[in-house]
Prior knowledge:
The chain is α+β, with helices and mostly antiparallel strands. The chain is 44% helix and 18% strand. The protein is built from 5 helices and 7 strands, in the order βαββααβαβαββ. It has a 4-stranded antiparallel β-sheet with strand order 1-6-7-5. Strands 2-3-4 form a 3-stranded mixed β-sheet. A hairpin with a 6-residue loop joins strand 6 (152-157) and strand 7. It starts with a strand and ends with a strand.
Amino acid sequence: AEVASDNVAPENETKERTMRPEDIAAAERAVEFVKDVIAKMGFDTATVESENRDKINITAPSGDDSLIIGRHGETLTALGYLAETLARAEKCHVNVTVDCNGYRDRRASSLAAMARRRANECASKHRKIKLEPMERIDRRTVHNALTGDDRVTTASEGKEPKRYVVIIPR
Length: 170
């Protein structure tokens, strides 16, 4: 299997990047794109806004949010991919993350807790553990959650869309 790590940055490290005027315009068009898609999906009571230019937040009433989020955030990931593709088609570099009702933070907490449980299992049994295939953002969360654990290391294996994290005892 192909082994490579995803780009892993410390959780509390944020890169401030100066955006060109055309990047800012592309980011604003990405927000408008997500607004249009949400409206066309029939979620009239949902609101779409962007605090900063690379995170688009959707606020939706309970019940609607599960349809907007999708299974394991697949719909949010697809919306982000399409919005990013829109910006990149204009030769602009904008990273877009789409969130709904704080789902991304809840998912990150859940994945980090699962990663720590599986790391404990890996360390006690002294054998590597393969996790289920997951999106790039989720794999990065698992890698970051186990970065400080001296008992284990992590790697990503497989090819998209079945790429997964392996926890390996040291």
